[in-house]
Amino acid sequence: MFDSLKIALQYITPKHLISRLVGKLAAAEAGGLTTALIKLFVKQYNVNMSEAERENPADYVSFNEFFTRALKNDARIICPNEQDVAMPVDGAVSQLGDIKHDNIFQAKGHDYSLTTLLGGKPELATAFKNGKFATVYLSPKDYHRIHMPIDGQLTDMVYVPGDLFSVSPLTAERVPSLFARNERVVAIFDTPKGKMAMVLVGATIVASIETVWAGTVSPPVGKNVVHWQYPSEGEESVFLKKGDELGRFKLGSTIVACFEPNMVEFADYSAGDETRLGDVFATLTQ
Q1: For 251, left (φ over 0), alpha (ψ -120 to 50), or beta?
Q2: Average confidence (pLDDT) over 96-124
């Protein structure tokens, strides 16, 4: 009953307004109040500050700066084998497996459209039909920067406006097409072994989604899908190596990674398994 009420409330609350207000508060530089909030958050969610580049909560001027904190150089090791695809985030597996033509499995009783996930653009979705997908949820305690699983040349970025439902496991079980209805940023890469899509999905109180090449993408892009294309050479080209930072969430969310058919085989992960940035995510099959 209580779970049903929590889901029902998400449909009627002004999620965008609440998220933007929380974003402003998280960006505030409020001195001792900011430090007290960070300390409370660290205690509440058992955040491991020993891994952070700056361990002392007082060293962060805003909550956003703390939430997107850098880790120490040796806190994560990116799997070095060229045939191994690196896990792009700390978090927990929501689902992973085969893309069945244009359908991606969300939770029991719920699939959603690959094409819709990628902004309603069939020309981008075609490469991933019958390929592989993995959905990874980032909880509040996790490191909130996203890194490259494999070397890649950026070809496209798409901003897709949408709702801002929570992306918790409960919501994934109850809200149809959750990841294809929430606001999101899609990045498409050409890799040495095929195409890869990295989808950064927004959620309730996610203050913004950023990429390393464009800065803050959302907010305030707007109410229309926006599609950018990138050259393979020149000043506007973007090439990232395995392990390089790709982007970050200001407050938590989810990523969906998609791969071409016959490109990867996932490591031994199941729904609910914890993930750690840099561990072996999958193996290239070519």
Answers
A1: left
A2: 92
CA distance 140 to 253: 9
Place of tokens 């914890």: 274
Catalytic residue among 84, 147, 156, 166: 147
pLDDT for 249: 85
16 has catalytic annotation = no
Percentage of residues in the chain with pLDDT exceeding 70?
84
Measured between alpha carbons, how far is 88 from 104 in angstroms, rounded to an integer? 19
37 secondary structure, DSSP code: H
> pLDDT tens, 228-275?
999 999 999 999 999 999 999 876 689 999 999 999 999 999 999 999
| Residue (of 225, 216, 232, 218) closest to 155 by Cα position | 232
Catalytic residue (one of 166, 168, 218, 253): 253
Catalytic residue selected from 19, 62, 84, 90: 90
Q: For 262, how many CA atoms within 13 A lie in the half-sphere containing its CB?
A: 1
Cα torsion 244, 249, 255, 257: sign: negative
